[in-house]
Queue: 4 jobs
Job 1
Amino acid sequence: MTTPSRQQIRPPHGDGLRDLSGDGPRTAPAGAPADTTVLGLPLPVVLAGARGHGRWHLDNIRRLQDKGLVRLVGVCELTPLTEDELAGQHVEQSADFGALLDSTGAAVAVICTPIPTHTDLALTAARKGVHLLLEKPPAPSYAEFRRMADGVAAAQVVCQIGFQSLGSHAVPAIRRLITEGGLGRVTGIGGAGAWARDEAYYRRAPWAGKRRLDGVDVVDGVLTNPLAHVVATALALDGSTRAEDVTDIRTELLRANDIESDDTSCVRVTTTGSRITVAATLCAERPGEPYVLVHGTGGRITFWYKQDRVLVQRSGHGLEEIEYGRTDLLENLVEHLTGGAELLVAPESTGAFMKVVEAIRQAPDPIALPPHAWERLPGENRRVVPGVDGFVAAAADTLALYSELGASWALSNEVSTR
């Protein structure tokens, strides 16, 4: 996500599912390669949201541009990028996303804008036959997710959801080891994320740290945005990625910072075949690499997904550490459109994650930790929760929630069956 406010990117008036008609350019059905004689390489790309995290996408588009796969033809921002921000490249800029897609003839749009804008912007692109890389989380509610996913499918455009960790080659490798019985019977999956964010992080944009803004859902919590990859990756390793794979969700949402949303939380997801517990905080004493831990009767696997690094511990096999490669999601989208490569993160494969987002959205507001449970680090201007690093690791290791681990500040505040 990037730093603009909700109003910074403007979809054309009236764009939405009801506007998905047969006019405008049509493309190959989702799941099938597009006609390369029509698209051609390099594919013209528009980036919506080029600041904040959008800078990463801007650099990545330049990388793929150097490989001859794409060319940046437009940037959608309320305040145009400077020549320095564009590294001297001259591209069309506009705050009107739909008009920019029309004027540039874009084949692909990368959407990295505030969470509440995702659905409308995605449907704007879909109506115009433009394929999508949509940043995570794809929507702030399950209803908005369905509106987006159904609209994209109806428009027959391809949509990739930006969970970059799911492009790691470690994910299918771990899944193969699990399905082949390499860990024995899987008893559960844990996830841990202990990060730090200073107080300015919550002032970077009007929606930051909000559950709602101007009556619209945002759900910018630790599990749904900054550490959403832990949840999505754990679900992927479990093989439970679709909405119907989730049978029960229990949440514990807390906050040390003076915000509306949660910054220290855990969730237990019961799936049709397993249980997953993920614990995360933005108030770590010593921030570290997030990871997913697969527990089995014959061993376990630790996956540090940002590093594509895997540690396999199996009875009778000792320790094996492996570093894997990674497929970039925009590059995968281009290869899907032009050569029929399998799309890595289609909307339906994020349905289970969106069920978690919905449970967090519907939960009571996060509980404010008492003043004695946190302290401020003056030099870093951030709040830390003493001992939280250990609780995060213990939750992944034991599959227990904070309250079950005896954290004095943790109280269960929600049980959701869907």
Job 2
Amino acid sequence: MSISSSIKSIQDIMRKDAGVDGDAQRLGQMSWLLFLKVFDAQEEELELEQDDYKAPIDEKYLWRNWAEDAEGITGDKLLEFVNDDLFYHLKNMVVNAEKNPRGLVVKAAFSDAFNYMKNGTLLRQVINKLNEIDFTDSTERHLFGDIYEQILKDLQSAGNAGEFYTPRAITKFIVKVTDPKLGESIMDPACGTGGFLACSFDHVKENYVITSTDHETLQKQIHGVEKKQLPHLLCTTNMMLHGIEVPVQIKHGNTLNKPLSSWDDEIDVIVTNPPFGGTEEDGIEKNFPSEMQTRETADLFLQLIIEVLAAPVNGKQGGRAAVVLPDGTLFGEGVKTKIKKMLTEECNLHTIVRLPNGVFNPYTGIKTNILFFTKGKPTKDIWFYEHPYPEGVKNYSKTKPMKFEEFQTELDWWGNEADGFASRVENEHAWKVSIEDIIARNFNLDIKNPHQEEVITRDPQELLASYQQQQQEITELRNQLKNILGDALKSSTGSEA
């Protein structure tokens, strides 16, 4: 049975349970079960590697000791154990961050988790389905990517606004050109389920890790913060499956809930798709300078990213970032103009990749861009690259998403920041704009491709509405003409009489 089929079977079982209401709760239920199973698989590996290894939680709560036996406890006994013993213990553990960091990870994962199921027999069936997947097997471990994708699709279908999954093609392209290296701190301040972090981990591992010491270094490089409980739990599980034994750097909280002036972090690489189109809770804006205060989430994150990127030291390049942002950031005025002015003064905003419509279809139609910048030197020129649809494609969809191979033209063109991207040339998709022109435009970065004629694209519904309006106007004109001709005929007849 495929992973997708297994997940569907699990969800079908949960639908029979009176305690689980809707897709979001089903996903929450599956996530804590998945976490404990993956955690225990990692425990088994650590026990084999270390002679004096001590479990970070009481052994009775390890997956193998209560869930692995298909004929084990079920029904009311299982519910009683889960609700009154397992959850109570894991939520209330007293753990020392230094002596027992893995225990701290478990406690954090369960801080806001819930068992929604009320039928112990159905819960046993769900557990048995999960036991069909062996996460100690390296081949099956890679299948977590399929589980992960399926859960993300279900998250989107559940209608969780703001939980938009960044297409894997974009994540991979961003990490490829940003090129995080061994020893560099890597952060996603709005990490969601960990797509950027997982991709960054894999990139460093494949390109720079040679020894076991390198691998230990890599485990400590990854940092993320996620506001919502369910994505945070999924991200933590994802990081464990990628080989991070103690993912304590994946924090559960709001990155913006801290005065900007109190940040003393120096981050080398930030790759992120922060929430946009939403507003923060009252008071969050007070953490930012008075002239830069706004409640729009994307604007606040952009300020934060500029602040926490490492400044250049002793000839070392400053921190670099790649951030997915909506068109509104590019052409917006007011506070947005001030933020863009600050960005171009404190960072080299060297490239903006303009993505086509439909990248996030069918979850949102907002048009997006990727901003690439490096801290420490002001912007002199900005290169724009308009990513085209592949031949024969007019829009992306859920069944026909963007593919990484589409970015090969950008990769071939990209060049090297160290020499000021001297190899770049303008073409039908790429053009360069000086900072003087940007200033003259009052930092409006919504600049159209000068090499292409403007193509007017209209939504089919808009075209239909326009057609109907034109038909109505034609009908009205005909009626007016009839009335005019009728009046003229009457006047003519009257004069003859």
Job 3
Amino acid sequence: MRRTTARRPPVAGDACEALLDRCVSFLKEGGFSQLSLREIAAGTGTSHRMLIYHFGSREGLLTEVVRRIEAEQRAALTALATETDDPVEVSRRFWRRLADPALAPAERLFFEIYAHALYGRSWTEPFRASVIAAWASPVEELFVQLGYDHAEARRRARLSLAATRGLLLDLLITGDRDVLDAAADLFAQLVTAPPPANG
């Protein structure tokens, strides 16, 4: 049985970032989690050797694509939080963004890599290191801004992360948009309720 080795870090530079841009765009158009590296290369106008040079392996490429899309989502959440002081409205807008069918291919890939990470595949090490940590701090900060102390903000941030991913996984499997929109709205109201006053 062939061992999957850990991927090499992507080469820094404009060429690598431009290639990653093309791969992300290709994914968003239709997904490629079932495609070979050669098929991905053909779809993005490059060679499989160039993908290996920059990303180490097919798995390394997929991990980098997910990393990029996750970073885009965190930036979107930060931007939404500056548009309104209503935390429920921020949550509603972010859920609508996540529930957009255009993001479904990327989100299916996210959960596919998540499943591999559960089994400790070596190539998922960067994903495991960031899948919680990269989100926990910015979401925790949003709760601190709502008036929660850091300990409570940390608990609510982790709950929010787990609940949102659970709702999204449900949506991808069932397609029950109406009920899940309502569930996401209910969760937003519950988790962002003002902390009780000290009495």
Job 4
Amino acid sequence: MPKYDVTITELACAVVTVEAADKEAAKDQVEAMFNRGECSFTDYKDLDFEAELNSDALDKVQEEKEITVLMVPNGKPPKPQTVKNSMDAINRMMGGFVEFYPLEIPTVIIWIRRKQFNKTEMNRMIYDEKGRYRQTAYGDFFLCNLAADGQNFESLTPEQIKKYTQRFEQPDEMRTSSKDQKRPKKKRDNVR
């Protein structure tokens, strides 16, 4: 289970009445009382709790085991591969920070974020099960399952590996989207 750091921010107020020669002497006297633990806060205001994943635990959100994925290298047929199931290991293996794109529940595509943004090295066109265009993938990517908790990756089943291997088999059959396609100009007959 991941660890979280919870920051408690409080604004506390206490009024302490003391006898002193002047304002500075009163402040010094109350500060000394506070340092000795003689003052207590009874009126807490604006209590706030903020939680974030502990930075030491960030890489441990993923279970430390290996999973079977379907690697889809640029211009080559897909192949099953075993990878370490941690974000740190996946980022190192892919050569950059990754993000995931939902393909079909529970399957996701893991690819390098900057390659999708820069749109270099087109790899495959992504279609849904009905053959409708959804996305273009740039650079190498792999497929795996996302756990129900949304925090862990899981292995593909043998049936999924077979299904997605067939779907992404032919890189040479990639189609360009209609906006990238140049249509030939129609020849017009100038008939009057």
